[in-house]
Structures are given as structure tokens and as C-alpha cells.
Amino acid sequence: MKAFLFAAAALVCTTPVRAEGDKSALAAQMKGARVPLSRGLAASASKGTPISGKFEVEDGKLQLSVYTAEGTNYSEVIVDHKTGKVKESKAITSGDDLTAAKAQAEAMASAKTSLKAAVDKAVKGNKGYRAVSVTPSVEDGNATAEVMLLRGNETKIVTEKLN
Fold first, then answer.
1. Which of 6, 74, 109, 127 has the highest count of CB atoms within 10 angstroms of its CB?
2. Rounded mean pLDDT, 126-152
3. Where are the strands (E) in the chain, listed by range?
4. How many angstroms separate the Cα of 105 from the Cα of each of 18, 51, 130, 137?
5. What is the pLDDT averaged over residues 86-114?
6. What are the φ/ψ torsions at residue 118 (nearest 5 degrees)?
7. pTM for this model (two decimals)
């Protein structure tokens, strides 16, 4: 049951593009992003431990969203993709977002490596790409982070070990 919960949460949270499923919309919007995902993860740490992060197109506008955990409290932190400063933080209290946040927090509880470090490693190993999302999960007792990378309109998924 636990493995199913992680798989379901990973499916819900690994779709970083919510612009009607259009990756080209994200690619076009990313040209205006001056802040890398790793900096957004670092900025959100003031609101709790980052447990996932993604650039997404919401209502036609690019935003950098990071889920954080502090104890049993979960938040969605919106980081300004041009300045790297936290714009707002909203509590996650119900629905699919809460289910996903709990699964991500549980995955990060067993991690020895931060999501920022995993993103930095993925980007360093893939010249010319930038990270657009990172989602942790646990499979067979091993915590990993799935990092989605973007170069132009091309996407690539890289898995980094967290323990």
C-alpha cells in the first residue's frame, strides 16, 4: 500500500506543466526565468524543508512553486522567478496536494541529500539543460529524485539518488 501511495503521489506531482499539458508553453515562458530551480529551493527553505519544486504555467503566467514541510505542516511556496525572493506561502491542508506533500515528505525523511544538491548534480551532468522540476520518491527503500530538465523545447528526465 505504501509503495502504491508513493507511486500515485509521484504521478500526480511529476507533471510540471499545467498549461493545458503544453510543454512548449513552459519552454516559451522559461525564457523569462532568471532564477534556477535550485535557487528557488534554497529560497523556500525559510518556510520549511523543500520536498518538491517545479516551474509551471498557471493562468498563462510562469511561476516557481516549491512544496515545503515543517513537522506535519505543508506549504506551497511561490518564489519570484525573476528575483529569487519568496512571494507567498500557502498552507496545504487537503486534497491531492496534501496527499502528494505527505508522500514527498516521507521520501525526503529518508534522504541524506537535499533536493537542491540533486538538482545541481543533474544540471551539472547535462550541459545546456536547466531543471524545471524535482520530485522525490522511495522505491525498494531507496530515496531518489526525479529531475526534469529542459533545453529549448526538449525535455529529459534524470534520476538522482538521495541516500
1. 74
2. 96
3. 49-58, 61-70, 73-79, 86-92, 130-139, 142-151, 154-161
4. 22, 6, 24, 9
5. 97
6. -65, -40
7. 0.86
| List of residues 6+ apart from 133 with CB closer than 8 A | 14, 16, 37, 52, 53, 54, 55, 146, 147, 148
Instruction: Go through 85-94 and write b for each residue having 16 or more CB atoms within 10 A of its CB, e for each that does not.
Output: ebeebeebee
Coil/strand/helix, residue 125: coil
> Looking at per-residue confidence, does 2 or 90 come out higher?
90
Q: What confidence tier does 85 reach under pLDDT thresholds 50, 70, 90?
A: very high
pLDDT for the residue numbered 6 = 41
> Is the CA virtual torsion 97, 100, 102, 108 positive or negative?
negative
Distances (CA, A) of 72 to 39, 40, 151: 24, 22, 36
Q: What pLDDT band is residue 21 in, cutting at 50, 70 and 90?
A: low
* N-terminal to C-terminal alpha carbon distance within the chain: 22
| β-strands 130-139, 49-58 pairing | antiparallel
